[in-house]
TrEMBL record, chain A:
The lineage of its organism: Bacteria, Pseudomonadati, Pseudomonadota, Alphaproteobacteria, Rhodobacterales. It comes from Paenirhodobacter hankyongi. It is found in: Cell membrane. The keyword rRNA processing does not apply. This is ABC transporter permease subunit. GO terms for cellular component: plasma membrane. Its main location: membrane. It is a multi-pass membrane protein. Residues 85-291 form the ABC transmembrane type-1 domain.
TrEMBL record, chain B:
InterPro entries: AAA+_ATPase, ABC_SmlMolc_Importer, ABC_transporter-like_ATP-bd, ABC_transporter-like_CS, Mo/tungstate-bd_C_term_dom, P-loop_NTPase, PotA-like, Transp-assoc_OB_typ2. GO terms for biological process: putrescine transport. Part of the ABC transporter complex PotABCD involved in spermidine/putrescine import. Responsible for energy coupling to the transport system. Belongs to the ABC transporter superfamily. Spermidine/putrescine importer (TC 3.A.1.11.1) family. One of its GO terms (cellular component) is ATP-binding cassette (ABC) transporter complex. Residues 22-252 form the ABC transporter domain. The complex is composed of two ATP-binding proteins (PotA), two transmembrane proteins (PotB and PotC) and a solute-binding protein (PotD). This is Spermidine/putrescine import ATP-binding protein PotA. NCBIfam families: potA (TIGR01187). It catalyses: ATP + H2O + polyamine-[polyamine-binding protein]Side 1 = ADP + phosphate + polyamineSide 2 + [polyamine-binding protein]Side 1. Its EC number is 7.6.2.11. PANTHER family: PUTRESCINE TRANSPORT ATP-BINDING PROTEIN POTG (PTHR42781:SF5), SPERMIDINE/PUTRESCINE IMPORT ATP-BINDING PROTEIN POTA (PTHR42781). The keyword Nucleotide-binding applies.
Length: 302, 379
């Protein structure tokens, strides 16, 4: 009896331990930094080290807490921030759509390839990760710059006579984002499409649907979970992307990542930078939360 | 519509004036070096319920998939209603298939699943609704139209799959192991319903199955397949009572095969000398073969009498020892061995609820059969 009780206790403890690992991880590396960030966002900026005032002080038995929401207010006063948010969202949204349009056919072809070739194709998708992300973005500079590889090739073949200005344009940023995040679109799409029962496609054809109709009525609706997962994996990091617009973008490329960087390192206004980060988080988390809720509701109703 | 076959009376395959509805001409299908279907020729007539019967890997499903257009024959020709099907994609064929896995669209309700084929044909919305309702009541799924496939039981899913395949009123309906996933009781019930539906609609059915009982119950005719070839085609009765080969005799039902050679060949009877029985077996019908030709006498267990002593009027009598008696409820199966060591299966209907005088294991008995009870197979 005692042994069984011990076994039961161990089982419960074991389960708690398994759950605890990710919880501790999230607490340490997400929740704690977020609390610090939130604290800085509501403090006052000073020229000191660290460059903000504490939000409470203890003097003569009186606890003074001063929460400064002026940083958030400031974000609404200067149109730069709104424009940067919108610019980032637009950049991320367009990149996500392009990545989907390119990634879907690729994922489809991989999923429909004979199983012995599938792993090779998947490895080719993941292969770029073996080189550092930063280096690969730098490489694009070499390709896109005025006297770079692309212009050289186009001029050598006589297609153009003047070098094109590609680097330091929004186009280069789109190119960089789509290129960098394409695998994150392909992989979840692939894993959804590879599970798609081929008999469903045959059943559709058997019932008189041409291949395109089958795609629209069967394949596409059944790959929606993969589309959502892939889109989120591209969209979220793309919104906060800093390296790609910094290296490939021009002065006109307005993205919230660069604004954040400027506030932090150039202006040394940590409170405003923190406020920018928190607003970005809210802007991202809210739609994702809503999306997940409608998804789970849909599943419950299904 | 062919009510004649529906009533299971007419035999269009015996009438040279009737043109076959589905013609399979010398069809071969190879996957690399593997031959799945080997030079199969087969005619199926309008209104038939034809069963392709065979073990797994015998090529029956590949043959069916070629009829549906999912596979292209390596050589040979398939004609449906006189029309050559080569190069015609599945979506342009007037055939439908009920898949073994049912292949119901998981993201669509029962109603949408059933309506799918009609919508692709551009049928007007009002008519689609009427026909879906009709179909739902035909397969007894009224009231389940709004459910999703995963909310249905196996039997209900099977009905949805059938309704979806039938709604376009195809010329030819193919069913791939249609009742495989159902339990025995439900399967028997569904078999009867399937026959009823087939008779009501008059659609030609081709059913693939590995279950010989199912094939016997369902089909107007059946074709026994093995290793990519059709061994025999005939009515269930013909195939069971007149198997043309050892394989068919053994595959359908259970059988005792006595190997031997033709000893005497006369107008109205023949004798086979068999080392298996250590005797000459009398067969009271003429056979086609020459003296000395190796043959086998195929004898069904239920056609053998077993007694402690048989009357001398029984044409073939052998002494045997009962090794084991299996009680199956409706019948008892006696596993006996002949003095030659050859095991023989004999079955007897259990007419009495209990029989104190029943033959038991270990007894010396006599088994015997009439000259007309056996079939001589050469192949």
């Amino acid at each position: 009896m005692r042994l069984r009780a011990l076994a039961g206790w161990l089982r419960i403890e074991g389960r708690a331990a398994v759950v605890a690992v990710p919880l501790v991880w999230l607490g340490l590396f997400f929740l704690l930094p977020f609390v610090v960030l939130a604290k800085i966002a509501v403090s006052e900026s000073v020229i000191a080290r660290p460059p903000y005032l504490p939000i409470w002080d203890w003097a003569e038995g009186v606890l003074n807490i001063s929460l400064n929401f002026g940083n958030f207010q400031f974000l609404t006063e200067d149109p730069l921030y709104l424009l940067a948010y919108l610019g980032s969202l637009k950049m991320a949204a367009v990149s996500t759509v392009i990545a989907l349009l390119i990634g879907y056919p690729m994922a489809y072809v991989i999923a429909r390839a004979p199983s012995n070739r599938r792993n090779i194709l998947l490895m080719l998708v993941v292969l770029p990760f073996w080189t550092s992300f930063l280096l690969r973005v730098y490489a694009w500079i070499g390709i896109l710059k005025g006297n770079g590889l692309l212009n050289g090739l186009l001029m050598a073949t006589g297609i153009i006579h003047e070098p094109l200005v590609i680097l330091q344009t929004d186009f280069a940023v789109y190119l960089g984002i789509v290129y960098s995040y394409l695998p994150f679109m392909i992989l979840p799409l692939y894993s959804t499409l590879v599970k798609l029962d081929e008999a469903l496609l045959e059943a559709s054809a058997d019932l008189g649907a041409r291949p395109f109709v089958t795609f629209v009525t069967v394949t596409l609706p059944l790959s929606v979970p993969g589309i959502i997962a892939g889109a989120l994996l591209v969209f979220i990091p793309a919104v906060g992307e800093f390296v790609i617009p910094a290296l490939l973008g021009g002065p006109k490329t307005l993205m919230i990542g660069s604004v954040l960087w400027n506030e932090f390192f150039s202006n040394r206004d940590w409170p405003v930078a923190s406020a920018v980060a928190i607003v970005m988080l809210v802007v991202l988390v809210l739609p994702i939360g809503l999306l997940q809720r409608t998804q789970s509701e849909k599943e419950e109703n299904a | 519509m062919t009510e004649a076959i529906a009533a299971r009376g007419a035999r269009p395959w015996e009438d040279p004036a009737v043109a076959p509805f589905l013609q399979i001409r010398n069809v071969t299908k190879r996957f690399g070096s593997y031959t799945a279907v080997n030079d199969v020729s087969l005619d199926i007539y309008r209104g038939e319920l034809f069963c392709l019967l065979g073990g797994s890997g015998c090529g029956k499903s590949t043959l069916l998939r070629m009829l549906a257009g999912f596979e292209t024959p390596t050589s040979g020709q398939i004609l449906i209603d006189g029309e050559d099907m080569s190069g015609v994609p599945p979506y342009l064929r007037d055939t439908n298939m009920m898949f073994q896995s049912y292949a119901l669209f998981p993201h669509m309700s029962v109603e949408k699943n059933i309506a799918y084929g009609l919508k692709r044909d551009g049928v007007k919305r009002a008519e689609v609704a009427t026909r879906v309702t009709e179909m739902l009541s035909l397969v007894q799924l009224d009231g389940l139209a709004a459910r999703k496939p995963h909310q249905l039981s196996g039997g209900q899913r099977q009905r949805v799959a059938l309704a979806r395949a039938l709604i376009r009123k195809p010329k030819l309906l193919m069913l791939d192991e249609p009742l495989g996933a159902l339990d025995k009781k439900l399967r028997e019930e569904t078999q009867r319903e399937l026959i009823k539906i087939q008779e009501t609609l008059g659609v030609t059915f081709v059913v693939v199955t590995h279950d010989q009982e199912e094939a016997m119950t369902l089909s107007t005719r059946l074709g026994v397949m093995t290793a990519g070839e059709i061994m025999q085609v005939g009515t269930p009765h013909d195939v069971y009572e007149y198997p043309q080969s050892r394989f068919v005799a053994d595959f359908i039902g259970s059988v005792n095969l006595f190997e031997g050679r033709i000893a005497g060949d006369f107008e109205d009877h023949a004798t086979i000398h068999s080392p298996d029985t250590g005797s000459e077996i009398l067969v009271s019908h003429g056979i086609s073969g020459v003296k000395g030709q190796p043959v086998a006498v195929a004898l069904r267990p239920e056609k053998i009498a077993i007694e402690r002593r048989l009357p001398e009027t029984v044409a073939n009598r052998l002494r045997a020892r009962v090794e084991d008696v299996s009680y199956m409820g409706n019948l008892s199966v006696f596993h006996v061995t002949l003095p030659t060591g050859k095991p023989v299966k004999v079955s007897q209907t259990n007419r009495l609820r209990s029989d104190d005088d029943a033959i038991r294991a270990g007894e010396e008995v006599e088994i015997g059969w009439d000259g007309a009870a056996s079939v001589v197979v050469t192949a």
